Amino acid sequence: DGGITQSPKYLFRKEGQNVTLSCEQNLNHDAMYWYRQDPGQGLRLIYYSQIVNDFQKGDIAEGYSVSREKKESFPLTVTSAQKNPTAFYLCASRGIYTATNEKLFFGSGTQLSVL
Amino acid sequence: QKEVEQNSGPLSVPEGAIASLNCTYSDRGSQSFFWYRQYSGKSPELIMSIYSNGDKEDGRFTAQLNKASQYVSLLIRDSQPSDSATYLCAVNPPGGYQKVTFGTGTKLQVIP
What we know:
Largest sheet of chain B: 6 strands, mixed
Number of strands of chain A: 11
Mean pLDDT of chain B: 92
Helix content of chain A: under 10%
Structural class of chain B: mainly beta
Mean pLDDT of chain A: 91
Number of helices of chain A: 0
Largest sheet of chain A: 7 strands, mixed
Low-confidence stretches of chain B: none
Radius of gyration of chain A: 14 Å
Radius of gyration of chain B: 13 Å
Order of helices and strands of chain B: EEEEEEEEEEE
Shape of chain A: globular
Structural class of chain A: mainly beta
Oligomer: heterodimer
Distance between the termini of chain A: 35 Å
Distance between the termini of chain B: 37 Å
Number of strands of chain B: 11
């Protein structure tokens, strides 16, 4: 089945530690996204990528880093510089070569908590 | 000013009533508009997309777009308890073709 897979489902970070959230898609989508969601809040854009080896900062990129070495993969690293990382992280993808913008396909999310 | 604004709610409506959800956006050149539904602890799922001024209907859902006034709305007719969820408005702002910005979401409660 085609889809977008996030792992792990739950992740715990210790003080001063970097952690990486995985996002893989087999939908042949060019664009991929990372969003952060805090309780009772909407989605805030962290980073997005339109093509391999290229990515753009979103609205809250500080304390995060990404890479896009393969079309299928867009991992997110939460660095120690992110002082309040506890949140629900959503990865999404979509195709871009269409007459109208396609919908976002979301992964099932990763809940990150600080120990 | 936030790029996409929604009333956080909760919006409570009785079963069978019409629920009206509103969203305003700041970038006048925005071209694409989406409504997503998100159940608690789950990922968002697309309900409606709209690109042109006017109404777009799909079953019990109607999306309305008014670019001159910079607002987009979602009407849910014959609301059901299963419609109780958070509804997120998303917009493609100009300048960043692939950037998709979400509002804070409106929590809808349909009372049986």
